[in-house]
């Protein structure tokens, strides 16, 4: 007779499955991830920019306060997207893409402002500028989703997948490249390829599109001396430690000093001026130094969870537009995060691109929050989600009246 240890009624895996089986699981995960990443981003922007802001503006909170303004606007937009009906949101898709293209076009006029070699900014007020190409990412994803949802019955034919999506999306990407913003264009290329894959483009055509976009990318790199310098620096950062390889070397020093547990929030040395763009494109290096490998892995796991829930929504949604929109938004945010992380870790050449919801940048933050709002909206089209959400709201209203 053998005595075995008593089994638990449910294992950890069963508990996770039970949570995910709830109608509002995806919706609540998106809300939670948005809140956590936004809060962490504001904290790290404050930490990474405090010295820079004090030196330039005599106010340690100058940079984070500007980021907070866009965070508030983004949260307002987040709530508005969740409240608006689907038919209204879909009706705004085409005007939104047209509007962002017009705004990008305005950057080539005297209204455009050039920053760090990229002419992709438009001034608003009080020294605050907007970057239309950031908003174009979301607008393009939603336009493609709307197009494929309307053409769903014909997507078995490659011609209906490729046209007019590739010409129009390619034209938007070309405008961004003309702004000398190859980083944003690279994300748009990833969105184009990803959406072609989601739509079911056959492998032969898919490989041709990847090859064509690769040739275009190589051409734009080869025709810009500064991009060639960055590529050569990526292969050997120590060849020009005070020039093109400076950021990569300082980022590695930040990670090395942080170790596993980090030096503590606010304790970074690199943010004191050694690491350029410490609060922007290279904020991950500051996170690695202050929060260590442990904090970095937690952050990466959050983006991994975002990828999981985004594709889960795309597979479970009953609405075709929501299905394509969820997949496109997930591809966009994951591609941008992977490029940024790869750049900071020295696995990719240095390309100016922010880490979603974490890096400083009002336009990027606003566009990403709206994207997360659409992802949460898509989650309400999962089986039983809309009814559960309506019941939850009725319960809250009854509780508030008591």
Structural write-up:
By secondary structure, the protein is mainly α. The protein has one domain. It has helices at 12-20, 25-57, 62-83, 86-91, 93-106, 132-150, 158-162, 165-178, 182-198, 203-222, 225-235, 246-258, 283-290, 292-316, 320-344, 362-379, 385-401; strands at 113-115, 118-125, 128-130. A 3-stranded antiparallel β-sheet has the order 1-2-3, covered by helices on one side. Strand 1 and strand 2 form a beta hairpin. Helix 2 (25-57) packs across helix 14 and helix 5 runs antiparallel to helix 6. One of its GO terms (biological process) is regulation of cell shape.
Per DSSP E runs of 2 or more residues, the count of β-strands stands at 3
Helix content class: 55-70%
Mean pLDDT: 90
Distance between the termini: 59 Å
- Computed over alpha carbons, the radius of gyration is 22 Å
Low-confidence stretches: 1-6
Class from secondary-structure proportions: mainly alpha
Chain-wise SSE layout:
Layout: H1 12-20, H2 25-57, H3 62-83, H4 86-91, H5 93-106, E1 113-115, E2 118-125, E3 128-130, H6 132-150, H7 158-162, H8 165-178, H9 182-198, H10 203-222, H11 225-235, H12 246-258, H13 283-290, H14 292-316, H15 320-344, H16 362-379, H17 385-401
Antiparallel strand pairs: 1-2, 2-3
Helix pairs in contact: 2-3, 2-14, 2-16, 3-16, 5-6, 6-8, 6-9, 6-15, 6-16, 8-9, 9-10, 9-15, 12-13, 13-14, 14-15, 15-16
């Amino acid at each position: 007779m053998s005595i075995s240890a008593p089994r638990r009624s449910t294992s950890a895996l069963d508990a996770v499955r039970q949570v995910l089986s709830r109608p509002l699981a995806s919706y609540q995960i998106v809300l939670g991830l948005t809140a956590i990443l936004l809060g962490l981003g504001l904290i790290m922007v404050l930490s990474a920019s405090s010295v820079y802001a004090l030196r330039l503006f005599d106010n340690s909170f100058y940079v984070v306060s500007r980021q907070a303004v866009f965070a508030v606007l983004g949260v307002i937009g987040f709530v508005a997207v969740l409240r608006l009906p689907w038919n209204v949101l879909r009706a705004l898709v085409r005007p939104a893409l047209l509007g962002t293209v017009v705004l990008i076009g305005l950057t080539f006029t005297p209204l455009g402002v050039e920053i760090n070699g990229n002419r992709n900014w438009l001034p608003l007020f009080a020294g605050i500028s907007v970057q239309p190409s950031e908003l174009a990412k979301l607008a393009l994803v939603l336009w493609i989703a709307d197009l494929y949802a309307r053409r769903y019955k014909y997507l078995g034919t490659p011609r209906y997948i490729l046209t007019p999506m590739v010409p129009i999306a390619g034209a938007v990407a070309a405008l961004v490249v003309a702004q000398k913003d190859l980083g944003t264009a690279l994300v748009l290329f990833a969105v184009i390829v990803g959406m072609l894959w989601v739509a079911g483009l056959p492998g032969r055509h898919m490989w041709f599109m990847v090859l064509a976009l690769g040739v275009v990318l190589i051409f734009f790199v080869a025709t810009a001396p500064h991009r060639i310098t960055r590529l050569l620096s990526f292969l050997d950062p120590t060849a020009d430690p005070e020039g093109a390889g400076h950021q990569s070397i300082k980022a590695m020093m930040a990670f090395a000093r942080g170790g596993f547990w980090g030096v503590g929030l606010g304790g970074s040395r690199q943010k004191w001026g050694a690491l350029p763009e410490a609060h922007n494109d290279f904020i991950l290096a500051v996170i690695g130094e202050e929060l260590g490998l442990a904090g970095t892995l937690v952050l990466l796991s959050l983006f991994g969870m975002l990828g999981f829930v985004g594709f889960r929504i795309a597979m479970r949604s009953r609405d075709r537009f929501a299905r394509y929109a969820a997949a496109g938004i997930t591809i966009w945010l994951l591609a941008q995060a992977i490029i940024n992380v790869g750049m900071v870790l020295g696995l990719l050449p240095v390309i100016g691109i922010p880490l979603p919801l974490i890096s400083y940048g009002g336009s990027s933050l606003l566009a990403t929050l709206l994207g997360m709002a659409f992802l949460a909206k898509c989650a309400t089209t999962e089986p039983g989600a809309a009814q559960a959400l309506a019941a939850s709201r009725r319960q809250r209203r009854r509780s508030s009246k008591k």
